[in-house]
Amino acid sequence: MTPLRRLFLAVLLGLLTGLGFAVMTGPVFAAGTRIKDIATLKGVRDNQIFGYGLVTGLQGTGDTLRNAQFTEQSLQSLLDRLGINVRDARLRTRNIAAVMVTADLPPYTGTGSRIDVTVTSMGDATSLRGGTLLMTPLTGGDGLVYAAAQGPLAVSGFSVQGQAEQLTQGVPTAGRIPNGALIEREVPGTFRDLPELVFELKNPDFKTATQISDAINAWSMSAFGRRIASARDQRAVVVLRSRQMAQTRLVAQIGDLTIQPDTPARVVVDQRTGTVVIGRNVTISTVAVTHGNLTVRVTEAPEVSQPEPFSNGQTVVVPRTEVTAREERGKLAILGGSDLQTLVRGLNQVGLKPTDIIAILQAVKTAGALQAELVVQ
């Protein structure tokens, strides 16, 4: 390139930048996906815990004690522990509700940490707004107590009722308590106790597992001079430990590596909502498709027949039924393409509704022209 041409390009680049244009000076590559977003480390997972408790402080929107007997029994047991005997009394309060408390215990959470909890009503309470959860032990599947939850609820829904109308928005019988549970027991095991590092794919695929293994080995060759990863199957990639780097830093470095995950050719159809999701690798062999609708309308227009004067007749209702049938014209279109854009363009040219597209995809699959898996929900 001559100096004059370089000067001209530099001046042109400066003018375009000053006018607010985005100038691309190099090739554009598609952004990859991090390994940490498509795979999880085996053994590093959440644990579910739950418990039964009481919510107090409700403004007359709690359980009806006569209908929810477990709420009355829980309230009596609570007051007995506090030295108050109400066994022979007829409790009529509606400011209390029995609830279930659920939470996810993150991996390797230490004692004294706090987690969020979800509170849901069990009885006939109409709203938990303004309530406070009393201390509730949360147990795991082994029956041991791992956390204790307590605190005021945050409820987003509300319910307003009058004599002739009721307005409800959201779910007023469920709420959350941010940082509402205090961890009392740690889950056995630590990160260092893992026998091996195994990355499990969220969407198992042989090609994606191979790409993850190749990306890790390419990085390890430059960092350690040896390969440390191998794909066990379509679900798991095994990584060897390295003495040259701490295990935590090794996992962090591997998680930031990017690849282009492969997705199977799949079409997901939801007939209830009319939703159609077509994967990127879906192709259709060339076929001719026509689709028409037959509409039948039945109209009832009864008429009143009056008798003649002085005829001593009776007024009767004579039925009048009109039936019409109309069939719309169907367009014959050719569908087929090697990529998603061509397929969508062909479906749009036919001009169909989502329900019609679902029927066409099912017919094309039956004809053997849809080169993908059809999932109907």
TrEMBL record:
Function text: Assembles around the rod to form the L-ring and probably protects the motor/basal body from shearing forces during rotation.
Assembly behavior: The basal body constitutes a major portion of the flagellar organelle and consists of four rings (L,P,S, and M) mounted on a central rod.
KW Signal (keyword) present: yes
Intracellular or extracellular location(s): Bacterial flagellum basal body
Signal peptide: none
Name by which UniProt lists this protein: Flagellar P-ring protein
Species per Swiss-Prot/TrEMBL record: Methylorubrum aminovorans
Source organism phylogeny: Bacteria, Pseudomonadati, Pseudomonadota, Alphaproteobacteria, Hyphomicrobiales
Coiled-coil segments on the chain, per record: none
